[in-house]
Amino acid sequence: MFRERLYLFDTTLRDGAQTAGIEFSLEDKIAIARMLEEIGVDYIEGGYPGANPVDTEFFETERTKRATFTAFGMTKRAGRSAANDPGVQALVNSAAPATCFVAKAWDYQVDLALGSSTEEHLEGLADTVGVAAAAGKEVLVDLEHFFDGFKANPDYALSCVRTALDAGARWVVLCDTNGGTMPSEVRQIVGAVLEIAPGDHLGIHSHDDTGQAVANALAAVEAGVRQVQGTLNGLGERCGNANLITLIPTLALKPFYAERFETGVTPSHLQRLTSISRAFDDRLNRAPARQAPYVGASAFATKAGIHASALLKDFSTYEHVAPEGVGNERAIMVSQQAGKSNLLTALARHGITLEKDDPRLEKLLKTVKEREARGYSYDGADASFAVLARRSLGTLPKFFEVENYRASVERRHNAMGEEVTVTEAVVKVRVDGELLMSVAEGNGPVNALDQALRKDLGKYSSQIEDLRLSDFKVRILDGGTSAVTRVLVESRDASGERWVTIGVSPNIIDASFEALYESITYKLLKAEAAQTSTTA
């Protein structure tokens, strides 16, 4: 059966950055782009080159391997040509092979926000698209306020669609910018647009202000658009955007869509959804939504009673899809049915193969659950999982042992009479029976411990020379004076690989040191695997 191609476009790094309290660092953007590639999206929009130093640096090189790396920005300013507009040229000259320009499809907004005429705005849209297309870019146009604009002045809204396509745009995206459009209206208006434009050149960009962003996206697909835009976990300004973590499995697993449409999402991509969703929340230092569709901890949970007893006889009775298909697991409160298949998949990512009836698997599963109950979360700390798995299976080499460590912070006056804060750390490790002690100063206790721990590891020192700490996040799990602290450390090396390790403790320094220790251990595991591969 022929299936039409449906394209998935992620705007997390642009729309997500509009969320109150969210600021993406360069390291965040790189890591999130990597996450998005793991769930099979077709386009990753990275932000606005030239708008700020982070975005400008992010677009100095292409950041994706499979997905189309996309830059976002405005059409040209009034009174100058696109060829001489710095904003347009920043997009054209960026490393992104695709550019998405925003234009206003509501005549009221053209007058209110731009102080311009609709004729001038259409001329600027055509000029901008033409210049970018001539430069070899794949051009997309987001038509802001399209649905409100159509209801107010359909002729002008449709003129925006025609102008963009005639100038060379590959995609024209219809935006429900204030999130107030109903699904029935989306179907009706998209139908009108299809009379002048082909569906395989149209996209939908919906906001969630009425809680219907996903429904509106699906309504647009049913009506005929062939590109869907959204964000990880529905992040976005105000109430958020269409949630790709909900849309992707719906499109891939529900027969109505799966039988009609083909996406770039494979079964292995789907199995990463839960892990990526939770890892994204960990990076944002927020708790994952337990009742999130498909990926929430409660998405496949059933309490004791008639539902649970029926579920034990037929899992499909109360589950609309198989939880393992989206990387989640079934939870029955009276008898936890625990994710051995998920565990086997996670082990396979690290080259560890076990049979499902191997008793060591049950032991590892129990260990993981016990540690998660104490505050650990391995969805966002895969390197720590690799270390834990090898330790539990008895295959973790004893590279070095930490005898003890301490960190001190001193506030004092320097020789100039200025108040300064000095942080010092001392770490004692034992390598092959030899005791090594290192002392280092740093920018805070964690940095000082990191410097001291890596300063002298004897025969292993050369193997960690390129190891760098690239990010550090702290989250308080329980309030009060006995709060439990979770620390996530992201590391990288010269190969370009990045990995995340976790530490949990009531003491933030202990939690940090645990994450640092496991980061170095994982790096040494990598070095050992590379050496073994070379020898073989």
UniProtKB/TrEMBL annotation:
PROSITE patterns: AIPM_HOMOCIT_SYNTH_1, AIPM_HOMOCIT_SYNTH_2, PYR_CT
Record GO biological process: isoleucine biosynthetic process; L-leucine biosynthetic process
GO MF assignments: (R)-citramalate synthase activity; 2-isopropylmalate synthase activity
SMART domains: LeuA_dimer
Pathway: Amino-acid biosynthesis; L-isoleucine biosynthesis; 2-oxobutanoate from pyruvate: step 1/3
Record domain Pyruvate carboxyltransferase: where: 6-271
Alphabetical keyword list: Amino-acid biosynthesis, Branched-chain amino acid biosynthesis, Isoleucine biosynthesis, Transferase
InterPro entries per UniProt: 2-isopropylmalate_synth_dimer, AIPM/Hcit_synth_CS, Aldolase_TIM, Citramal_synthase, LeuA/HCS_post-cat, LeuA_allosteric_dom_sf, PYR_CT
Catalysis: reaction(s): pyruvate + acetyl-CoA + H2O = (3R)-citramalate + CoA + H(+)
Taxonomic superkingdom: Bacteria
EC number(s) on file: 2.3.3.21
Protein biosynthesis keyword on record: no
Cross-referenced PANTHER family: (R)-CITRAMALATE SYNTHASE (PTHR43538:SF1), ALPHA-IPM SYNTHASE/HOMOCITRATE SYNTHASE (PTHR43538)
NCBIfam families to which the protein is assigned, alphabetical: citramal_synth
Family that this chain belongs to: Belongs to the alpha-IPM synthase/homocitrate synthase family.
Record protein name field: Citramalate synthase
Origin species: Devosia oryzisoli
